[in-house]
Write a structure and sequence with these properties.
The chain is an alpha/beta fold. It is built from 10 helices and 15 strands. The strands form 3 sheets. Strands 5-4-1-8-9-12-13-14-15 form a 9-stranded mixed sheet, with helices on both faces. A 4-stranded mixed sheet has the order 3-2-6-7. Strands 10-11 form a two-stranded antiparallel ribbon. Helix 1 packs parallel to helix 8. The longest helix has 16 residues.
């Protein structure tokens, strides 16, 4: 499988239990590295970043052939949380224009990929026209970006219709429960899942962290339990890692339940170490056997 991953990268200033580290972030980073380490044939990240960060971006993508789209400045975020309660976070984002325009050269290059994964952080990172021109491809979208705006350093959710209008173009949509409830206006899991399918979406995955995940694959529903990590180090990028592992699993397993279990294990393993997932396929399969 040949996969392209589109979106901005970020400079993340992360403080966990009072200890600061600076690392690269953004959905394309976590997704692309997970796919690479899980043995995907070809992965090319198409990322926006400031021209001055070209070398830094390339160095952090583990040898992948990054296609950088130069913008005014790389997005920067500050995140602070405690390892004892990682779901409660303080965050601040420095927001700059980071739009991937549907230029003819880019669209021509993307024709050579089997699967395209969108990973925007803000509503203007991947415009509607980009989805529209690529709707004949296998498209995956997975996070809050299309309905998120940067206001006073905060992520503000609004205009859920930004996501709803691209649903008929997507093969897979990944959201956490809170995001799914916000966009659908429904409460719970099955109600939002059914809402998205009613809007023309093919397949929906709703994640709930330690409570597991929910697969709506066509008319079929599967509940996937979460695995307990051996230790909890860093939750950053776990959802993106789940998405990447699930897409990889569609090559490895025929049954959606197996695909979901594989993705859940990879996401759990990503919690046990900081940064992007850096284990391998054999280790994941062995953990599943255990």
């Amino acid at each position: 499988m040949k996969i392209a991953v589109l979106g901005p990268v970020t400079k993340d200033f992360i403080t966990i239990d009072g200890k600061l580290s600076v690392q690269i972030g953004g959905i394309p980073y976590y997704v692309a590295l997970a796919l690479k380490n899980l043995g995907t044939e070809t992965i090319v990240p198409f990322v926006t970043a400031g021209r001055e960060d070209r070398g830094w971006v390339s160095e952090n993508f583990g040898g992948l052939a990054v296609r950088q789209i130069d913008v005014e400045k790389t997005l920067e975020s500050m995140i602070e949380y405690s390892s004892s309660n990682p779901d409660m976070r303080k965050s601040f984002i420095h927001c700059y224009p980071n739009t991937i325009e549907p230029a003819a050269k880019l669209l021509e290059e993307l024709e050579g990929f089997d699967h395209i994964i969108f990973g925007p952080l803000f509503h203007d990172n991947t415009p509607f026209e980009l989805f529209n021109k690529l709707k004949h491809k296998n498209l995956t979208y997975g996070n809050f970006g299309l309905f998120t705006y940067g206001e006073a350093g905060k992520f503000v959710k609004k205009n859920p219709e930004n996501l709803i209008r691209v649903l008929p173009f997507l093969k897979y949509l990944f959201l956490d429960r809170g995001e799914a409830e916000f966009v659908s206006g429904q409460v719970g899991v099955k109600e939002p899942g059914n809402f998205f399918l009613s809007q023309g979406l093919a397949n929906m995955i709703i994640t709930e962290g330690s409570k597991g995940s929910h697969l709506f694959i066509g008319a079929d529903y599967f509940k996937i339990p979460a695995f307990t990590p051996m230790r909890l180090v860093d939750t950053t990028g776990a959802g993106d890692t789940y998405l990447a592992a699930f897409i990889r699993a569609t090559e490895l397993f025929m049954e959606p339940e197996q695909q979901g279990r594989f993705a859940a294990m990879v996401a759990t393993m990503s919690l046990e170490k900081g940064g992007a997932f850096d284990s391998n396929l054999t280790t994941v399969l062995n953990r599943l056997k255990e």
